[in-house]
Write a structure and sequence with these properties.
This protein is of the alpha+beta class and 237 residues long. Helices cover 37% and strands 15% of the residues. The strands form two sheets. A three-stranded antiparallel β-sheet has the order 1-4-5. The chain has a three-stranded mixed β-sheet with strand order 2-6-3, with no helix packed on it. Strand 4 and strand 5 form a beta hairpin. The protein is elongated.
């Protein structure tokens, strides 16, 4: 019988003894057992306790899906942060371009009004700027100044070729360097952009002529006799 133990059979002490219950009737309930597939062969305790072979890594199947999910979450978070940074830079660039376009449009309108400002300035210089005309001119100048228009070019300021256009030049010892001595037409700029240079007359420094050095004469020494004029030989004869 297969279930009998054979005493003559060699038994190795290092092999585990596996006992399988193949009885068809359950001894506890007395009922007939249903045929079931054999259970998986039991793993000896010595092999179960042994670690993985050298060079291999033991990975827990329950931990692997969680690690992969964390990695995917980190990648999606990095992508979201990168997209958010690109969008913030795009908004800043659009806002900067919008400001440049608006300032350029304002500067173009102000440049078209410069001849009118010259007429207002000449009328004020001749005393013709009064009444309602003066009120309208003041409102126009105030509005342009609020938008960013700035006038420059006054007498006495140093000459700057980047904002001044010299149409007349003179020299004088009264100035220390190139100086604006007369403004023929005022200049205007809008922010850092020069709409029109100022037309000016420039006076440069002229060094004073050096005086002849004085000769000190000692009163105790006799004065040298005056030189006698040379006479012609014919007259002497």
């Amino acid at each position: 019988m297969s279930g009998n133990y054979d005493e003559n059979q060699d038994v190795r002490p290092d092999e585990p003894v596996i006992v399988r219950d193949r009885r068809k009737i359950d001894p506890e309930t007395g009922e007939l057992r249903r045929p079931v597939a054999d259970k998986a062969q039991e793993v000896p305790a010595a092999e179960a306790a042994a670690g993985p072979p050298a060079g291999e890594t033991l990975v827990d199947d329950a931990v692997a899906p969680a690690s992969g999910l964390d990695k995917e979450l980190a990648e999606r978070t990095a992508d979201l942060q990168r997209v958010q940074a690109e969008y913030a830079n795009y908004r800043k660039r659009v806002e900067r371009d919008r400001v440049v376009v608006v300032n350029g449009a304002k500067a173009s309108v102000a440049a078209e009004l410069l001849p009118l400002l010259d007429d207002i300035e000449r009328a004020e210089a001749h005393g013709d700027l009064n009444g309602a005309f003066k009120a309208v001119a003041d409102k126009l100048l105030a509005g342009l100044q609020r938008s960013g228009l700035e006038a420059f070019g006054t007498e006495g300021e140093p000459f700057d070729p980047s904002v001044h256009e010299a149409v007349q030049h003179s020299t004088s010892p009264e100035v220390a360097g190139p100086t604006v001595t007369m403004v023929m037409r005022r200049g205007y700029k809008f922010g850092e952009r020069v709409l029109r240079p100022a037309m000016v007359a420039v006076t440069d420094h002229e060094p004073t002529p050096e005086a002849a050095p004085e000769v000190m004469v000692d009163p105790a020494e006799p004065a040298a006799p005056p030189a006698r004029p040379q006479q012609d030989d014919n007259e002497s004869n």
